[in-house]
């Protein structure tokens, strides 16, 4: 059995087909949901729900194989190696049938079933580097990692002192088995992440280390976990759930990486950003210019945003080589 991640590779579809209903290719199985022009799918949407970490969550980390990402001056970010799901699929809870189906279909995503959150996508690394370069600060802020997958963006903000960090992913399997585990992995005492002389490992470099040592104490769990909330479900129902909380939050910063690949989701995504962003807040979007085989990408998303007339879009970074990738920031237009 092998998982296939990278739906931009070997795509056999026409890049000019930007309608979001591209044919299948042998690397990805995409089953697009039918959507009318308001973006309301004709099929049932996945109901949003909040997930609470188990009272004794350390069993999630039994036999964890983890990696550590060091980017410049950012704190080290620990995350489960994606092969853990491939190796342990038979022993894991799989109520959504996500683990078994992705393995069987060798799919990065199955639209409306599994939206790709079980691995770290490359634009997440781009956004982390931009955040480091821009000197973004998180202290005291309310942050949403929208379409979080592994949750590295939210985890960075948590380690950076955010007051509240909400993690949202389409799939409950991703939230329960990956995002929560990764937050726990990052509850290690930061001192254990330092070299003997007190310097951060990998300072000034961007580099991944395999097999980080898992510290059994997770000393900062009580300090960090209570500042987190975890949600699964479709953006439309997440918006309703988030707005109906006892103390509804507006986020100072929303970060979203590799989430604009399907044009059918743009109305729900845009509404979520529009309704949940604080008036002074900003949204980081990290994305490929075009998602071959799926149809969306930055240019179509920018056109959609311009048509709605709510946000300005500023370009912060673009890749110089290979498949074009971008980081942009959205802010409310001044009225
Ligand atoms: C390709 S994954 C990217 C995961 C992660 N942000 C990263 O960069 O590694 C896309 C993510 O977008 C989210 N997503 C896509 N469509 C969605 C929808 N209609 N409703 C809710 N979440 C959605 C899923 O949670 C999924 O994890």
Describe the structure.
With 335 residues, the protein is α/β, with parallel strands linked by helices. It has a domain at 54-61 and 116-190 and 220-332: Rossmann fold (3-Layer(aba) Sandwich), CATH 3.40.50. The protein is 25% helix and 21% strand. The protein has nine helices and eleven strands. The chain has helices at residues 83-88, 98-105, 122-134, 152-159, 172-185, 221-224, 235-243, 266-276, 298-308; strands at residues 49-51, 66-71, 77-80, 142-146, 164-169, 206-210, 228-232, 251-257, 277-288, 311-318, 325-332. The strands form two sheets. It has an eight-stranded mixed beta sheet, with helices on both faces. A three-stranded antiparallel beta sheet has the order 3-2-6. A hairpin with a 5-residue loop joins strand 2 (66-71) and strand 3 (77-80). Helix 7 runs parallel beside helix 8 (266-276). It is globular, with a radius of gyration of 19 Å. S-adenosylmethionine is lined by residues 115-117, 120-121, 123-124, 147-150, 169-170, 234-235, 257-259, 265, 268.
Question: How would you summarize the topology of this molecule?
Answer:
Blueprint: E1 49-51, E2 66-71, E3 77-80, H1 83-88, H2 98-105, H3 122-134, E4 142-146, H4 152-159, E5 164-169, H5 172-185, E6 206-210, H6 221-224, E7 228-232, H7 235-243, E8 251-257, H8 266-276, E9 277-288, H9 298-308, E10 311-318, E11 325-332
Parallel strand pairs: 4-5, 4-8, 5-7, 8-9
Antiparallel strand pairs: 1-7, 2-3, 2-6, 9-11, 10-11
Helix pairs in contact: 7-8
Bound molecules: S-adenosylmethionine.
S-adenosylmethionine is lined by residues 115-117, 120-121, 123-124, 147-150, 169-170, 234-235, 257-259, 265, 268.
């Amino acid at each position: 059995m092998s998982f296939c991640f990278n739906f931009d590779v070997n795509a056999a579809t026409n890049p000019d087909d930007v309608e979001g209903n591209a044919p299948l290719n042998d690397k990805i199985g995409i089953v697009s949901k039918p959507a009318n022009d308001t973006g309301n799918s004709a099929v049932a949407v996945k109901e949003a729900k909040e997930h609470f970490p188990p009272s004794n969550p350390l069993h999630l980390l039994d036999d964890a194989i983890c990696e550590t990402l060091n980017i410049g001056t950012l704190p080290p970010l620990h995350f489960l190696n994606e092969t853990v799901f491939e190796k342990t699929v038979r022993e894991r809870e799989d109520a959504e049938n996500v683990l078994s189906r992705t393995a069987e279909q060798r799919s990065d995503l199955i639209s409306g079933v599994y939206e790709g959150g079980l691995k770290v996508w490359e634009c997440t690394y781009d956004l982390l580097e931009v955040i480091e370069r821009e000197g973004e600060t998180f202290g005291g802020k309310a942050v949403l990692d929208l379409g979080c997958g592994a949750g590295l963006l939210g985890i960075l903000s948590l380690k950076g002192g955010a007051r509240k960090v909400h993690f949202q992913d389409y799939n409950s399997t991703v939230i329960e088995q990956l995002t929560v585990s990764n937050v726990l992995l990052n509850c290690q005492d930061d001192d254990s992440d330092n070299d003997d002389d007190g310097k951060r490992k990998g300072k000034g470099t961007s580099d991944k280390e395999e097999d980080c040592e898992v510290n059994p104490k997770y000393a900062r769990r009580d300090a960090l976990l209570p500042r987190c909330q975890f949600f699964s479900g479709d953006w439309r129902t997440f918006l309703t759930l988030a707005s109906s909380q006892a103390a509804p939050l507006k986020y100072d910063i929303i970060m979203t990486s590799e989430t604009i690949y399907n044009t059918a989701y743009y109305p729900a995504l845009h509404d979520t950003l529009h309704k949940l962003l604080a008036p002074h807040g900003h949204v980081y979007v990290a994305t490929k210019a075009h998602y071959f085989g799926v149809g969306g990408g930055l240019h179509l998303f920018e056109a959609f945003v311009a048509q709605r007339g709510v946000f300005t879009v500023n370009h912060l970074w673009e890749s110089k080589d290979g498949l074009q990738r971008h980081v942009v920031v959205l802010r409310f237009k001044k009225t």
